[in-house]
Each structure stands twice: as C-alpha cells, then as structure tokens.
Amino acid sequence: MAIFYRGAAIDTWWHKNDPRISGFLSHSPGIAHTVAQLMNHISFGTTKSPYVSLTRSYGIALGYAMLGKTPTVANPAFVWEIDLTLPLPSGVILRDPVQEVAASLPQPFDVIPYQHDGEQKAIIGLIDGDQYNLATAPVPRPPNSNPSKLGATFTLQFKTLIFALRDAEILAHGPIPAACVTARHEVHQTPAGA
C-alpha cells in the first residue's frame, strides 16, 4: 500500500469535482508520455498533459490546497488521499520524474550541461518564489572576465529535478479509479488566536 496526496485549492478543478465519484483523470489523457511532456508539466505547470500530479507528502498537498482564495470552515480546501497498491489499477502507470529525467541528462562534457552556473543560494531562489532574487542575482565570474548582469542559468532538466524533489512528486499516467480515493481532508486557515 502506498498513500499519495493531491491538494485542491478553492475553485480549482479537483475542488469542484469529486474524484471519489469520477476518479482522477488528466486534462489530456490521449497525449503520449515523453520526457519532454513530463518536464513541461512539472516546470511550467502545464495542465494540457497526460499526467495527474501526486505527492508522497501531506504537507506539500496541504500547501497547494492553501493557495489562492483563503479556505474557511464554511468553504474549505481539500487534500485528497489516494491509495495505490500493486498491482496498479488497469491503465495506471506511476512515473517518478527524478528517475525519468536523470536517465535523459547530458554527459558532463556535453556543450550544454544540465547543471546551473550560479551560486549555491540560487537554488533556494528557484525553490522558494519569495526568495527568487537569489536566482536572478548576477552570477560571479572569474577575475579578468566580463562581469555578468544575468542571473543563473537553469535548464529545463534542472528545474524539473528541483521542483519534483521539492514537491515529492510522482506523476500518474492513466485514469486513477474512484475506488483508490480513500479520503478527503477538509483544510482551512486557523483563525488568529484560536
């Protein structure tokens, strides 16, 4: 048994539609799986993809559920709990984006590497939008070279790896049956002083 979660913020698709009735299905189930599709889904938040994003972390799902409008007791957001066991339901494939992207990375001597060229804190800026200035800070260069006024360069592969790790993300490819959705946790802001 493996438990996965999906956050549903107020007024989003999975807030308005109950997967305990319909199951989880991606926006574009007919699109074939490719690593490029996977990277676009994760790095750009592309919804026209064959995937449903799941996480192994309740805390991550909770964070996504709390985005946008503030959930209240009267109008809560949801964290869906999904139980997927082996053998998986017919047509469902779970894809680990870290493993799939890692298998497609260029070699260290390739002209365009996947590694970034910024400082260590640049990754913090990429992970945490509130500190994005760390990702866009000028990149240090060796003495006697042209100083850079540009932030770090992050490849699509690098962003995908970082975002997938940050979100403990697993992608479901194929329809997750309603029977696998085992709980809906209602979540809301705790009033100040409560």
CATH topology of the domain at 2-102 and 167-187: Heat-Labile Enterotoxin, Chain A
CATH superfamily of the domain at 2-102 and 167-187: Heat-Labile Enterotoxin, subunit A
Radius of gyration: 19 Å
Percent of residues in beta strands? 15-25%
List the secondary-structure elements in sequence, H or E: EHHHEHEEHHHHEE
First-to-last CA distance: 36 Å
Alpha-beta classification: alpha+beta
Shape: globular
Largest sheet, in brief, is: 3 strands, antiparallel
Residue share in helix:
25-40%
**What is the CATH domain class of the domain at 2-102 and 167-187?**
Alpha Beta
Query: Order of strands across the biggest sheet?
Result: 1-3-6
Count helical runs.
Answer: 8
CATH architecture of the domain at 2-102 and 167-187: Alpha-Beta Complex
Rounded mean pLDDT is 91
The count of DSSP E runs of length 2 or more, i.e. the number of strands, is 6
Low-confidence region ranges: none
What can you tell me about this protein's structure?
- By secondary structure, the chain is of the alpha+beta class.
- The protein has helices at residues 13-16, 19-22, 35-44, 58-65, 97-102, 122-127, 133-136, 156-166; strands at residues 2-8, 51-55, 77-84, 93-95, 169-173, 181-187.
- The protein starts with a strand and ends in a 7-residue tail after the last strand.
- The chain has a domain at 2-102 and 167-187: Heat-Labile Enterotoxin, subunit A (Heat-Labile Enterotoxin, Chain A), CATH 3.90.210.10.
- Helix content is 27%, strand content 18%.
- It has a three-stranded antiparallel beta sheet. Strands 2-5-4 form a three-stranded antiparallel beta sheet.
